[in-house]
Design brief:
alpha/beta, 12 strands, 13 helices, 3-stranded mixed beta sheet
Amino acid sequence: MENYKEMLGFYKDKKVFITGSTGFKGSWLSTILYMAGAKVIGYALPPNDPQDLFVELHLEDKIKQYYGDIRDYETLKKIFDTEQPDIVFHLAAQPIVRESYVAPRYTFDTNVMGTVNVLECVRLTNSVYSFLNVTTDKVYENKEQEKGYVETDYLDGYDPYSNSKSCSELVTHSYKKSFFSDGRCQISTARAGNVIGGGDYAKDRIIPDCIRGAVQKKSVNIRNPYSIRPYQHVLEPLAIYLMIAKKQAEDTKYEGYYNVGPDEEDCVTTGKLVEIFSSKWGKGFTWNDQSDGGPHEAGFLKLDCTKLKNTFDWRPQYDIDMAVEKTVEWQKKYMLSKDAFAITQRQIQSFFAL
């Protein structure tokens, strides 16, 4: 596997455009690239909560941040014209399954036409030579099978969120074949599993719900404790996103569609994840097995990451136990110091051996 420290050296002084930069993964990715010496350009909706990782990291002072909606093509195109980025990571999305049932039109508009808008900007901006669209493990037609899904399996997400990300994949495939066959810009997608990590305050996500319950000393209702998901620490997929974008820029053979997830033994039930969290957090955390009768969500979902492992000679660094431990460590240190950037920086340095 390529040395992570050397890989980050590739990004020094590169102009890297990140959509969704104010989101959870976007904030971690912006921080990594800032530490690597990249010229980071962010585009996203403004943070709408004072308890927000982007705000806590003071990223507005560290990167060049533009605020706007991914559905606003004209604004997005003007920024591309001004900045002339080298590399683009597309993370902007409406990312919550349950929210997609409440606002399906907004979800499709954001996740499908948002992708069209970004790819159209890439098509019309000659400076861009590497593009990565971050989608989800939920893009596949879920047959509730025990075998992990591979990249050639049928794309057909069930709920509006999952289906919109399937469509985002297809949009990317179309643009790649229609407009980038000349090799001017390399195009890939990354289908990532469920991520956990410090600073995630999203609603309807298991670990954030657990942290809120632990801090407030309130018992947490776990609605689908027997559902199996590929959980991984946020730094795992981000490292792979950075590797794919770098490697395809250097050699077109690395272009493709990649599952990004943990080893099979780390695909665990939600109940098991909560039990691990409880053991790491210690006293003051309790939870209940209680479905809230919400809309359909997949019960069984695993990824087969053989392609990723073989292509990049890659293996995850953190198992599920360590992923939860790092998440709890981040939160407890933040509660004491309120210095989110220092804590995040140390975890990045440790993971990338900087």
